[in-house]
Design goal:
CATH topology: Rossmann fold
Radius of gyration: 23 Å
Distance between the termini: 66 Å
Number of domains: 1
Shape: globular
Strand order of the largest sheet: 11-10-9-12-8-1-6-7-13
Largest sheet: 9 strands, mixed
Helix content: 25-40%
Oligomer: single chain
CATH architecture: 3-Layer(aba) Sandwich
Number of strands: 13
Order of helices and strands: EEEEEHEHEHEHEEEEHEH
């Protein structure tokens, strides 16, 4: 069985800042450390769980990004993946879900029995790469997957997915298929030292996106707007009794009591 796991490198939360440019428009700036998207860790762990329960399972991780993005492939191999594919972009700018899905689909058209990814990325939270890639590869897919079970003959997968209102539904899909996994489906492991040492020595397959079919992002980001504090907080001071009286006065002033 051959599994492809999609992983993304994202900036750690404390490495993101919002600053204004010369025209007063807010813009995002990233600095500091980068890490594997936490949602993708559940996809990697699920692939490894399958490998540990079945014979002859081969796992390849795939990522799209600049030179530094190969670090997430090292972590994926450190967790237990066998190989990694780095789709190298010529720029640090996120190319958008349509472009990323198109590039992955060009590689994923190779025979894979199962493609796994996280439900979304921590930075843009689009949740679109998985479904777009599945559509481009003409694969059945499911999102918000919280549980999965392969059939004995590996021809189908039965999945449990979260839907609106806190309900869940059961779906059976034929393989090959693509699944976008929710947090909670498993507990991602820490990479072992031996696997990390092996990953540091590993040479990943690198494919420049310039050599792949031309794609467009279909999304133009015009800028960001900082939220306006329309209702500043009012700090109450004094003893507990005085604070209670102040609350009562505020509620009366608004005709709430």
């Amino acid at each position: 069985m051959k599994i492809l796991v999609c992983v993304k490198q994202v900036p750690e939360p404390e490495g993101i800042a919002v600053n204004r440019d010369a025209h007063g428009m807010a813009k995002l700036e990233t600095f500091g450390r980068f890490a594997m998207n936490r949602f993708d860790e559940f996809a990697v762990e699920q692939a490894i769980n399958i490998k540990e329960s079945l014979p002859d399972v081969h796992i390849q991780g795939i990522t799209v990004g600049p030179d530094r993005a190969d670090q997430v492939l090292k972590r994926a191999v450190g967790m237990g993946c066998d190989e990694g594919i780095h789709l190298l972009t010529p720029t640090e700018i996120d190319q958008g879900p349509a472009a990323v899905a198109a590039w992955i689909s060009q590689i994923g058209s190779e025979k894979y029995d199962l493609i796994l990814c996280g439900t979304m990325s921590e930075d843009t939270m689009n949740g679109q790469v998985g479904p777009m890639a599945a559509a481009l590869m003409d694969l059945p897919y499911a999102t918000q997957v919280i549980g999965m079970q392969l059939t004995r003959d590996l021809s189908h997968v039965t999945i449990e997915r979260e839907i609106e209102g806190g309900a869940r539904e059961m779906v059976r899909l034929p393989l090959p298929a693509l699944l976008a996994l929710q947090p909670g489906i498993n507990r991602p492991r820490y990479p072992s030292l031996s696997n990390l040492l092996r990953a540091n020595q590993k040479v990943f397959e690198t494919i420049s996106t310039d050599t792949l079919a031309t794609v467009t992002t279909e999304i133009d980001c015009l800028g960001f707007v900082l939220p306006v504090h329309a209702r500043p907080a009012q700090l109450l001071t004094g003893s507990a009794k005085e604070k209670a009286e102040q609350v009562a006065g505020l509620l009366k002033a608004r005709a709430l009591i």
